[in-house]
Amino acid sequence: MGKLPKIPLSRVHQSELIDRRILEVVKTGNYILGPECKAFEKELAAYFGVPYCVLSSSWTAAVHLLHIAQDLEPGDEILVPSLTAFPSIEPMIHAGARPVFCDIDDTYTIDPEDARKRITKRTVGILPVHLYGRPADIDAIGKLAADHGLWVIEDCAQSHGAKWKGKRAGSYGQHAALSFYPSKNLTVYGDGGAILTYDEGIAKRISMLRNHGRSAKYLHEKVGFNQRFNEIQAAVGREQLKVLDDLNAARRHVAQWYRRELAGVKALTLPPDDTIGLTQTVYHMFVIRLATRDIREGLAKALSDQGIETGVHYPVPNHLQPAIAEIYGKLPELPKTEDYTQRILSLPMFPALTEQEVQAVANAIKDYLSR
Ligand SMILES: Cc1ncc(COP(=O)(O)O)c(C=O)c1O
Q1: Please, which residues bridge with residue 311 across strands?
Q2: Is residue 7 part of a domain?
Q3: What is the pLDDT of residues 19-44, one digit of tens each?
């Protein structure tokens, strides 16, 4: 019997049309912050239903510029879930603010009640993360923000196209941030990111800061950065945006196949299903939870032995990262976050995954768990 083809954790959408567009841009001789970037910004703003979008070289770069443009003060506190990619908190630390880590609820997103308990006089904002493609509880977060006069930046790195009450996640906070890192639902062929905002002044400041603080070619109003975006990636992103809804629909099909194949398997917990009328998840990842860490590790190894790639997002929550302990010392425990990070496992999830591949993954899981 021949070896079965490998099933990766994620795979970037590619097309001949995108190949042609890349070549087209190369031939224009125009490579940085040109018409493709302008058009991509406009199209992203329209897609998310917000007035302004500013591209930058990554989510991390874009949010750093945003925090500078917000004039964060040393000691400002920002509520953020600990269960997220480490970059969610890097820009705020570089900008002098302090992340205040919050626990999650069963949707793997920030628990608004836990966040409420952590508000102090120094709290200025909330950075909810729509983790794995499922919107956090936007109503509860909006209420918390309104009750305490806080701003909200939605971390949409994993949730391009997800909806909350029929509107795009990313259109609820004052600002939102996107990542186009390959593996995301909307990717380019490299790094990239953007800020979505309702604030024209902030959009202008970020645009200036990303390009050496320039207001004209050789006139610098601020000391800025080189965190620009480029034409080739903008052309790729524009083509990816055209098919984003289709790609997300395909991800939702994959999720349904997993749910069907894994229904009733007692030893695992499936991801929370959509709440009708409230959430539309875009399954950046399909994350199951096992009974113990040992079972998670054993299952990951068994799948890997069969050519099935899995991941853990994330094995070490941010409040327990060495870099954070070095700055803030030992931080309070976050029981659910610490428990779930021991037991979660991300299964292969991308739009081109076939029903047969999902069945193969599910069978391998059932086989291991029944041993
Ligand atoms: C939730 C989340 N926030 C932020 C980031 C950072 O994005 P970037 O790599 O574009 O800086 C990522 C990407 O890993 C992410 O998944």
Answers
A1: 346
A2: no
A3: 999 999 999 999 999 999 999 999 99
